[in-house]
Amino acid sequence: MATVTNWVDHLTASEGAGQIYPYVGTELWWVIAGIAFWLCWTYYTATGEAEEQRKLARKKHGANDYKNNIPEW
């Protein structure tokens, strides 16, 4: 039933807050989870790219090797 006469009283009531704005009080946990995900993703991406660069460095390509059409350059 949509009988709201005063939005201030309705939004501050505990039974109405979950209907208007779900998951009240979980914002901090979402921020922490987002930061943790971002840090993990950054770490694993950097680790993978560093390994790829080490593999390329072990092949000892020269500055002009791309002209010879080397596969996996």
Question: Strands, helices and their partners?
Answer:
Blueprint: H1 7-12, H2 14-20, H3 27-58
Count of alpha/pi helices: 3
Radius of gyration: 27 Å
Helix percent reads 55-70%
The succession of helices and strands, N to C, reads HHH
Give the structural class.
Answer: mainly alpha
Mean pLDDT: 78
| DSSP, total strands | 0
- Low-pLDDT stretches are none
The biggest beta sheet reads:
none
The end-to-end distance, rounded to whole angstroms, is 66 Å
Per the principal axes of the C-alpha atoms, what is the gross shape? Answer: rod-shaped
Oligomer: single chain
Strand content: under 5%
Could you describe the 3D structure shown?
The longest helix is centred in the middle third of the chain and has 32 residues, at 27-58. It contains 3 helices and no strands. It has a domain at 31-60. The chain has 73 residues and is mostly helical. The model has no long low-confidence stretch (mean pLDDT 78).
Can you describe this structure in just a few lines?
This protein is mainly alpha-helical. The protein is built from 3 helices and no strands.
Notable characteristics:
single chain, 73 residues, mainly alpha
